[in-house]
Amino acid sequence: MNGSWTKSLAWLVTLSTSYLFAQESVTVVSFGGSYAKACIEGYHKAFEAETGIKINLEDYNGELAQLRAQVEAGAVTWDVVDAEGPQLVLACDEGLLEPIDMLNLPPSPDGVPAEDDYPPGTLTECGVGGLYYATIVAYHPEVFPASEPSKIEDFFDIDSFPGRRAVHRNPQAVLEIALMGDGVDPSDVYDALRSEAGVQRAFASLARIKDQIVWWEAGAQPPQMLADREVSMAIAWNGRIFNAQMLEDQPFKIMWDGRVVDTGSLVIVADAPNLANARKFVEFASRAESQAGVASHIAYAPVRYSGFNLVGNHAVTGKPMKPHLPTNPDHGGRSLTFDVEFWVDNRDELVERFTSWLSR
Amino acid sequence: MVRLNASWLALPLIGFVVVTLVVPIFSLAKLSVYDATVADALPKTTAALRSWTGPELPDANTYAVVAAELIELQENRELGRVASRVNRIASGMRSTISKTPRRFRRSEEERADLALIAIDEKWGKPQIWYAFKQATQAFSSRNFLQAIDMRIAPDGSIERAPEYQRVYVSLFLRTLLVAVAVTLLCLIIGYPMAYAMANSSPLWTRFLLVLVLIPFWTSLLVRTTSWIVLLQQQGVINDILVFVGLIPDDERLTLVHNMTGTLIAMTQVLLPFMILPLYSVMATIPRNLSLAASSLGANPFQSFIRVYLPNSLPGVAAGGLLVFILSIGYYITPALVGGSQGQLISNLIAYHLQSSLNWGLAAALSVLLLLGVFVLYVIYDRLIGIDRMKLG
User: Fold this and answer.
1) B169 to chain A: nearest residue by CA?
2) What are the boundaries of each domain within chain B?
3) CA distance A201 to B368
4) By the 8 A CB rule, do A71 and A40 touch?
5) pLDDT tens-digit series, residues A171-222
6) CATH topology of domain B168-388
7) What residues contact A215, with CB distance under 8 A and at least 6 apart?
8) Interface with A, mutate which of B40, B354, B358, B359 (most A CBs under 10 A)
9) ipTM
10) CB contact at 8 A, A90 and B357
């Protein structure tokens, strides 16, 4: 009798404390799937243990309509959002995000202040850079027994490297790769794309292989197309190819030459309901250890210089992670940094142009 | 009096429809023609540009007004919103506007025109000022013009967009074509199926009904992915065709990542919406009507054409309308299986709603789509008569 009474009291206490703790929470919106798992294991659990703040993780697909609707209706439920590329800048322009100058970003483990530990362009008005990912060309080595493709020009050379090509149905990163594949130096790519002649050259380069292209829409498609031998080479995201290599034992290889490297960032929503917790969360996520934690689960590189040095082995297979990170200097080959400003300026026009070109 | 009372019971539903459908549609329509962001943020610039008509550049005073207002906006963190609005009319203006207040010095106010042109030579181009003036006009038809591949020329006349930029009209037409084709395919496959369901033993009917409903219980993405596995060049169907020797191995058919794939996958997804209304109408057609026709000397073909078909038309009308309207708004399946032809008008509406945040253009495209459907509905009503339509 006495025992059961204590038990129900304990239950009641647990209930009420969990209710109290539920007040201390932060809603984080991210891309879901294996990336979300990597974040949970990489640093979310450590954050909850250290601060006692509970993370409510929600999925979204990178689209801004819901964020804008929340802010404009004055009914914000999101606190922190994982955002990338032009989306981040657009949301910032629209006043949907808090500026990050209120944050106190932690120094590196050996004391380098945050502003010297972030590469230029990764701390923006509203976004704290978290990771680098790359748009790369991957191929199935068994399709090319004689000689494997090694340079980005090979992707556009159907005669020497036959087979269909998987390409993202989106001009972003694809036009850049088309120009590099036509021999444009990475440092000249965006100057070229700012001119009419350069845009025409990019489309002409794509047109050379247009009848061999299988267009994809979702990031899961290119590894599947490679596995089914639907295509011999694919423009894909390096994290997806990495997962296929590691977790499904696919023999795919990544050709790092001609890669386009982009930054994923964390942002805080304007008028976030748990603003203080959101700040704590982003500051915690910005630690070099947190960024390296994510990189031990998925092949996205820490943005901070000090974070890259901390990366060790893959948590599941125990294999070293550094060879798979898009920013590893050992990859060699040409590398292009995705120009967010260019795309915010020109995306609408180029998306229309790309769609029009596709239909022809 | 009793009737009046009964109709009050529908009030909650009417209220619901007004709040969730009528109001949003009107605010959508307003969004497509009205955007006062720039006019509200830059009142003095708006006033100064009202009297400017070009083709020569605005006077130095206008430049000074623009510079002063842009600086004020930057201090209030409202510059980005204005910059992105102007960028929609003239690509690249976003970065020009963003950097102007940062680089402008107060001491340069006397010759603000020279100072701005030094910051970015775009400020010295009349067509940029025309775009800027357009952005300050709160009421504008430019979203609707853009939605039909037109634009406002610097002299105020309306011209077609350059050829490489024309995209929306062809997407509207493709969407219409796909919707008509899918509706016809669903009818061709669905009519015999519904006939079989309506005219077999109860056990068979139930079995066939389950077959129709099973796809409803599977997620859309799973079904779409299955079609890719079946139809791709190294897929099941091509493998079978090669195995039985119908086609050589190096000439495998392209059944997916093109229009064929779109039509096959959409027809399968939407087929139940055709079969169910057809079945429910056919189930109510008395069997003795056909018997009577035969006894009066009609052969089976005549009895079908002159007796059964007219009686089943309300079901054809309902199923056709359902499938047609659903396929007009479809875009996930075509995007995954349609290859270069896989984009329909809804893809671009979704892009402007969710990625570019250009809700004005998204609204204009939606309004045009809605009007198109409405026109087709009226034609349909004239041809078949909507009051004859039956869902069961």
Assistant:
1) A356
2) 2-33, 37-138, 168-388
3) 34
4) no
5) 999 999 999 999 999 999 999 999 999 999 999 999 999 999 999 988 989 9
6) MetI-like fold (1.10.3720)
7) A166, A167, A168, A169, A358, B257, B339, B340, B342
8) B354
9) 0.89
10) yes
